[in-house]
Amino acid sequence: MQITSRFTIAVHVITAIEYFKDMDRVNSEFLAGSVGVNPVIVRTVISKLREAGILKTQRGSSGAVLAKPLDQITFYDVYKAVDSVDKEEGLFHFHEQPNPNCPVGRNIHKAMDERLKEVQRSMENELKKITIADIAEDIRKEIRLESA
Amino acid sequence: MQITSRFTIAVHVITAIEYFKDMDRVNSEFLAGSVGVNPVIVRTVISKLREAGILKTQRGSSGAVLAKPLDQITFYDVYKAVDSVDKEEGLFHFHEQPNPNCPVGRNIHKAMDERLKEVQRSMENELKKITIADIAEDIRKEIRLESA
DNA sequence: AGCGGATGTCATGCCATATATTACAACTAT
DNA sequence: ATAGTTGTAATATATGGCATGACATCCGCT
Description:
Two copies of one chain form a homodimer. The first copy, chain A, is 53% helix and 3% strand. Chain A is mostly helical. Chain A has one domain (6-142): Arc Repressor Mutant, subunit A (Orthogonal Bundle), CATH 1.10.10. In chain A, a hairpin with an 8-residue loop joins β1 and β2 (65-66). In chain A, α1 packs across α3 (39-51), α1 (6-19) packs across α6 and α2 (28-35) packs across α3 (39-51). Chain A is elongated, with a radius of gyration of 19 Å. The mean pLDDT of chain A is 93. At the A-B interface, α1, α2, α5 and α6 of A face α1, α2, α5 and α6 of B. The structure holds a DNA duplex.
């Protein structure tokens, strides 16, 4: 199992919006072309990002605008925004019917839950350390290398 | 997206095998009853655990035997054993066709890869800190509380 | 040797979810 | 008003997890 590509798509989209912000017509179709997915996917991802307050859009008129500077948008923000993992259950999917008549079955959940949450927290903390600014910078570096 | 319940099933199975080791007929059917899934699922999970050297089984005769003491079986071992996440791609699923003609599209992968791997590593390190012995101990505690 | 009880594994079906795609109403700017 | 765009619903397809039945293989025991 893997975390949905919606996450990497979202990072890509935000980076591209910033990178091409002075260009005409950075619309969902253009972005979809860069990402390599259907424009509707881009629009739904952008919807989620808007709901999360990461960017702003306007119906009818082309182009989204970031609501925060790049270095204040962390991977965690994006990851949460696009529902990369199930909100209720968390990162780990627990088997749903351990036998309550079995001493192990009726206690396994309690024994594992807190520890799994800790693992998840640790991963999420790592995501908080990375910002889109880091990515944008790396990409500019790579582009500079290309033309060298 | 979530990590397969095969993982929590595997932890449950190992714990149960140890807990009921002195009982008769701790076979896949019995374990399936405790976990609340089909016996075939238990058998495939056990197969993976055997391949990973975590336990030993014998065709025909009932019951699996752990190959290591509980405190030497980490969550990470189990997680890797049952293929909780895709081996090749890792925890994050990258969108597959970023546009090579777009400066952002052709560099986004490079810019994100190492960082995402770092996130994954950090999660896996957390998994290494937890052993089945921790779980078994917690469960025994809970059981003691029940009868108090 | 033969039998009963297991395991190991395959094949199939079902269901949930991710992504693709079409369609269209709502909206903006010119 | 018109062209261009967003927001979103509806539908289709593909993939993967889990359930389930079937069965060959194997072990222990009598």
